[in-house]
Sequence to fold (280 residues):
Amino acid sequence: MNQKSSWWTSIIHTTDGGTNWTIQLDTLDALLFAVSFLDSSFGFAVGQTPAPIPCSAIYSGIILRTKNGGTSWSVIDAGITTGWNSGFKDFCFTNEGNGVLVGNYGVILKSSNDGEIWELNLNGTTNDLSGIEFKDANNGFAVGAEGTILRTTNSGSTWTTQPSGTSLHLNDIYFADEDNGWIVGTNFNWAQNDSSLILHTTDGGISWIKQTSFVGSMQLFDLYFVDVNIGWVVGSEHYGVGDYQGVILKTSDGGVNWVKSTNANCPYLWSIFFVNENTG
Fold:
């Protein structure tokens, strides 16, 4: 962290399946929430830069792009001309050249030229959006605050709101196949001691039901399935004032039952990914 930075972030890289990691970027004054590559060379990262007014809640979204496997990164103009824009939380490229990005205050941006230019899409919500997932080039979903679920059937050009049956903050969404998908949500107010939950669809996202709830002090942030049966969720569990431990839960029956795998040696686990059933 340099003397001018109020935040800092790192992008690290592995070439041996995760055994060893090297830092590619660690001087950026920003928070990054998502990174993904279309191939071994072409990738993006999104997040937010510090507030221009100290202690204010005004953040500027940032998009980074690399064309050389992360050796160097360039900032891409988000295309929002209101003077400031919200933090960006997640993104997805539906196919070559076409990407959709979500962020706070209901922001959805769409690109059709490899992320060179992003256009703002109006979707009818001002709730923060945290996660996005596309089943194919046309059909996708975005989730966020106050139980928000948005659905598109035209590659993100227009969006419709779907009922979720909850007011919890929906953090992420994942589809294991065309029909089976899951959403993980939580309440970010520890004092309320409300549950986290998992929503499930078996009809491709047309309808969602509450599959599992976790009453108590567990907050869940991300999930991943390797098939329709085996999946994991990660988050944090609160044991007392200042005492938080990262938590991993696993299901082997499509989310009907969850077993705590381990408590991680860190206060929070924000994201999870598996390359196969054994390696993640």
Remarks:
- The chain has a mean pLDDT of 82.
- Residues 79 and 273 are 30 Å apart (CA to CA).
- DSSP finds no helices and 22 strands in the chain.
- The two ends are 29 Å apart (CA to CA).
